[in-house]
Amino acid sequence: MSPVVHEIRRYPVKSMAGESLPSVEIDGRGLAGDRWYAVVDGDGKLSSGKHSNRFRRRDAVFDFSSRTADDGVRVSGRGGEWLVGDADLDTALTEAMGDPVSVLAEAATPHQDGAQVSLVGTASLDWCREHLGVDADRRRIRPNLVVDTSEPFVEETWRLLALGGARLRPVERIVRCRMVDIAQEGLPPERGWLKALTTSRDMSLGVYLEVVEPGMVRVGDEVRLDG
């Protein structure tokens, strides 16, 4: 049987909990609206679960969730719900982070990581659950697309795929970091997944894909392998 799209996930504000969607338009940047906003400090660093040239570790960002509404992007957590652009949202986040921050749209610093779209197969998650003794909840690895598969890690062998009206090309495996083990999206700390992936999978799970042709993708769409 051909793989099919099992779930579509979008994260309107980077590093916050996201939303599960029945369908989404994929454009040249990726899922429309995905990680368009980020929580940014005065040095231009994006709030994340790790430190790097782009990121500053601020685990408090994972206590918030974001979703797309008719009037814009809404953020909830720690005592309220706010619309992105509301000064009260920046105040709440500043209090939570202990440092002045604002929710800003993508500008010079890209919010995407290795490529525009991320994907993982259900069989790969099942393998981790069975062989690594972890919960392997897909929310911990923050994928855009979860695809029903019957063979673990088969997505790493794909060269070109079409789903719905879009065509995507895998470009690299996704190397994981401590974010897979921290508490997020209502999940408790895992603590063991990254260590297990380090010894068994070179810290890698899932793949990044670049957009070859934009188009609409829906849950239940067949994944057609073109190469």
Main attributes?
M1 Pyruvate Kinase, Domain 3; eight-stranded mixed sheet; 227 residues; 18 strands; three-stranded antiparallel sheet; mainly beta
Describe this structure in words.
The structure is a single chain. With 227 residues, the chain is mostly beta strands. It folds into 2 domains: 120 residues, M1 Pyruvate Kinase, Domain 3; 75 residues, no CATH class. The chain is 13% helix and 37% strand. The strands form 5 sheets. Strands 2-1-13-12-16-15-14-18 form an 8-stranded mixed β-sheet. It has a 3-stranded antiparallel β-sheet with strand order 4-3-17, with no helix packed on it. A 3-stranded antiparallel β-sheet has the order 8-9-10, with no helix packed on it. A hairpin with a 2-residue loop joins β14 and β15. The longest helix is centred in the middle third of the chain and has 11 residues. It starts with a strand and ends with a strand. The mean pLDDT is 95.
The CATH topology of the largest domain turns out to be M1 Pyruvate Kinase, Domain 3
CATH arch. level architecture of the largest domain: Beta Barrel
Helix percentage = 10-25%
Number of strands: 18
Structural class: mainly beta
The separation of the N and C termini measures 17 Å
Described by strand count, sense and barrel closure, the largest sheet is: 8 strands, mixed
The portion of residues forming beta strands comes to 35-45%
Based on CA atoms alone, the radius of gyration comes out at: 17 Å
Helix run count: 3
CATH level 1 name of the largest domain: Mainly Beta
What is the CATH superfamily label of the largest domain? Answer: PK beta-barrel domain-like
Assembly state: single chain
Q: Which regions contain 5 or more consecutive residues with pLDDT less than 50?
A: none
Biggest sheet strand order reads: 2-1-13-12-16-15-14-18
Secondary-structure element string? EEEEEEEEEEHEEHEEEHEEE
